[in-house]
Structures are given as structure tokens and as C-alpha cells.
Amino acid sequence: MNRRKIIEEKIFRILSAIATYSLIATLAFIIILIFIKGFHALSWDMVLKAPKGGYYYGGEGGVLNAIVGSLYISIGATIIATIIGVPAALYINVYLSRRKRMQNFIRYILDALWGVPSIVYGAFGFTLMLFLGMNASLLAGIITVSFLIIPIVVRTFDEVLCNIPKGLHEATLALGSTRTEMAFKIIFKQGFPGFITALLLAFGRGIGDAASVLFTAGYTDLIPIHLDEPAATLPLAIFFQLSSPIPEVRERAFAAAAILTIIILVISLTARFLSKKYSISNLK
Amino acid sequence: MYLLKEEMMTHNKMINIVDTDIDTDSILQISNLNVYAGDHHILKNVNLRIPKNKITVLLGPSGCGKTTLLKCMNRLSDLYKELDVSGHIYIENDDILNTYKNIPSIRQKMGLLSQRPYPLPMSIYKNVAYGLKLKGIRDKNLIDYNIERHLKEVGLWDEVKDRLHNSPHSLSIGQQQRLCLARGLAVKPRIILADEPTSALDPISSKIIENLFKGLKKHYTIVLVTHVLRQAVRLADNVIFMSHGEIIEQGSPEHLFKNPQTDKLKEYMVDGN
Ligand SMILES: Nc1ncnc2c1ncn2[C@@H]1O[C@H](COP(=O)(O)OP(=O)(O)OP(=O)(O)O)[C@@H](O)[C@H]1O
Ligand SMILES: [Mg+2]
Q1: Tell me, which fold does domain A47-283 have in CATH?
Q2: Does A97 sit within 8 Å of B121, measured CB to CB?
Q3: Are B107 and A181 within 8 A, CB to CB?
């Protein structure tokens, strides 16, 4: 190796190291900031109680209403997105495997949908809601968020499925499987880690998004029990508290942000654990 | 228990049919097979008979259409929209290219062994059980019995009997290839289609597969694609030499390799290996 190459190599190494570590540092900074700022307000009351009267002026209570609302909406939406998204991804990869153009077209559309800002989904959900004569409610929120995350489920899962070697398709069909058997018994299993990643991404986006639930889920201090009741969500709880003039309430916004972060962290660690446990090289 | 025994016996009989049923000497006939991909004429009017319980080796330079020919035989060619297949392929009086029968049941008449092993994403046990279940075998004892039988058939039983429920990815590539063979045999095919099955394997694993083939031809008909001339000499009962989508020469290996009739085969024998 000549001198120039050695120097080039060093410079690139340093540059990419800087990029990597500054990224991690920024992330760490954000998380630490949230926890420091919210530390005082973070208490069991925060997690276990719904807001009492005057909560938004510094009164007693917590954000349990928003935690429950957010979990209901994101879990509900993830379930719907799975029911629709998984067969769709399998369809693209198994039944459309001969039709490359159609495949690419669908992928292109889904990528575009993925990129649509969530406020647009919010507006769409709102219109749909009015059209159906629904009120802002848990159900409307779930439906709107599922629109938002279906493209994520399909494309993330699809990206893993389309890397499954054609040889496995052929081997499976050669044994005399039908396409449906192949899709659900073989291809789904082979792509299982991708399935987990898809759920995780979709859930994370769903629970963290404010704009899509702004008009559709409503907001309430009560814990939602029925699908037709309005539901609070963590992103909106953060938003409302952060815009308060009272410092204690703003502190609570950070505490709520910390709670949201912890939920996402826990979910993603569980998902990682599951996907490792059930990955193909580890199956029983 | 009695029932189980009886089932096993009928099961064994089904295998024996292959042994006794020798009134015709070819199991697969191809006539006027043409395959196009757009303007590219991949297989040019192929006519061919595959003798029963023999090893037929397909030989020819890269890109001459060997894999395509194999894929037509079990209609995996269906997976490629761009391939336009016409002609007749008869297996046991079924014209499989023009049939109303369902394709999965036709594919089960053939086991496929590809260049690389593709174990299914499930345990070693379930890999073999998958084929049995497709055949409608549900009885647990019968499944266990057959799994042992087929794993023994490919000489893998002793190596895996203590870890049947592990992932096949814990096996070596050579063992995986034999697992795929066992899985294919579980479907009780009449023909084994093998597309360069040893090209990804080490010499010892290749040898094992070769020896298996020699034994398996008692019960099955084998169509083997290979690039290794010496493998062809060792295994073939019948050699088919192809070039540019056409069959150039065919015959027994002794005959063919001693007196190649065409320049193409002579060239291939010099450069091809
Ligand atoms: N799906 C397809 N679309 C277009 N062309 C194809 C397709 N499949 C095969 N071909 C072409 O047909 C010819 C024969 O291919 P095939 O794979 O059958 O060759 P082969 O004899 O198996 O070669 P190798 O020894 O390298 O495996 C090649 O020129 C290939 O490019
Ligand atoms: Mg080939």
C-alpha cells in the first residue's frame, strides 16, 4: 500500500467514526435531557393516576389516561396493520413473484405512502370520520393510525421477504406445496425476524405520532373503556403540557416524554429478544 | 397397532412398485420441447427419453439450457413468466405440460436437489415431516417411522438422531444437502432431479452423495446435471450432451467419451473440465 492510500484510509476511518459517535452522542443527549428535565415530575402518581381537576394548572394526578390511550391506539393499530399488512407482503412476494412490474409498482406506491406526513393521514382520518358520522374516538384513532403504519408493516416485512432466495421457493414448490402453503408455512417463517422488525417499527411510529390522532382520537382526562369514547395519547399530553405557562406542568411534559421513551425502549428490547429467540438459526 | 403395521406394509408396497413395474424402460419422455425467453430460443426442439432406474447425466457448457430442461420437468418453469414453454413431457402417460391435474401433485413425482441446500425454516425432524404431511400422513408413529427410514436412506440418521429438533443450520452443507434429499424422498417421488448437487460440497460430501445416488437408482430414476466430467463417468448409465439448447449426442458414457462423434463434445471434453 502506498502512502496516499494509507492516509486516505485513515481520514475515512476518522470521518466515519465521527459520524457514528456524534449520532450516538446526540441520541444519548436527547434521552438524558428528557430524563433530567422530567426527573422531578416523574413519580408513581404520574404513571398510575389519571389527571384530577386542575392537573393542567399544577394540580394532582398523572398521565395514565394518555398511557392507556396511546397503548390502546398503537396496539390496536398494529394488530389491524398486521392483519392487512402481512398477507399483503406475502402476496407481493409469493403470488406476484412472476410479475416484476406489478411488484415494483406496488412497492413504489407503498414507499410513497410511507413518506406521506402523518398530518395528512390525520386529515384523511378526520374526513373519513365525518363521512361515517363517527366522533373523535379510540376507534377513529386506531383506524387512522393503522392507515399510517400499514405501509411500514408491508414494506419492512416485504424487504426481508424479497431477499429470501428463489431456491427456497423452488425447493418448497418442488415438494408439492401449494403457493398458499408456501406463503404461510415457509416464507412467513423464514421472514419471521423481519416480521418482528416490521411490528416494532410500526408500533413505534404509531405510539409516537401526534398529528394523526390530533383530530381523530380526541382528548380526555378519562381512561377510555369503549371504542367510541375519545382517548388521550402521550404525544398530545406532552404537547398540551409543554405549552403550559406553568413550569411544573412543563416539567411533567418531560416526564411524560420519558415514559413514552421507556415504553418504546421496552417494546423494542422485547421484540429483539423475541426475534432472536425465534430466528431460523435458533429454532426448535 | 395392527392398523399401523398394515399401513406400513402398504407404504412399503408403494415403494416396491417402482421395483417391479418394469414393463416399459423409460419413465419420462420429452417430445418437441421448445423454450423461448423472448427472442432467445433456450431449448430447441428437444426429444428425449429418460430410462427408468438409471442415472441419466445432462452434460454441456454453461448456459446451454440444462437447468431450464430440469425445471420444465417439474414445471418450476411456471415460476418464470418470461419463459414460453411448448411441447410434451410424458410421465407415466401424463402429459405434464398440458394437463388438467393439479401441479403440486405432478411435482411430487419428482424430488429436486439444487446446487445449494435450501433447508426449510424448521427443525431437522420437521423438514422431513413436511413432505410426509403433504402426502397426507398424519399418524405420529408413521411419521416417526418414515423420518427414520428416509434419514437412514441418505445415511444421515446416525449423525442427527440426537438432535432431530435442532435447526438444520447447525449441520454442515453436505449434511444439509443430504437432509434435502431425505426431505425429497419423503414425498415418494419416482424421479430425482439433481442440478449440480455436489458443486457446493467438499470432496468427501460429494463422494457420499455420489454413492447415495448409486444406491438410490434401485428405487428411483435419477436425472443429474453436472459439470464434472469424471463424475459423469463414475455415475452415468446414460449421458446426454447438450449445447446451445440442442441435444448433440447421447449414449452410454463408455461409448460417448471413447468415441465422441462431434467436435463440440470433443472440445467440451478438453476444455470443459
Ligand atoms: N428466466 C429466464 N429468462 C431469460 N433467460 C433465461 C431464463 N432462464 C434461463 N435463461 C437463459 O437460458 C439459457 C440457459 O440457461 P440455463 O440456466 O438452463 O443454463 P445451464 O445449462 O443450466 O447453465 P449452467 O451450467 O451455467 O448452470 C441461458 O442463456 C440463460 O441466460
Ligand atoms: Mg444450471
Answers
A1: MetI-like fold (1.10.3720)
A2: no
A3: no
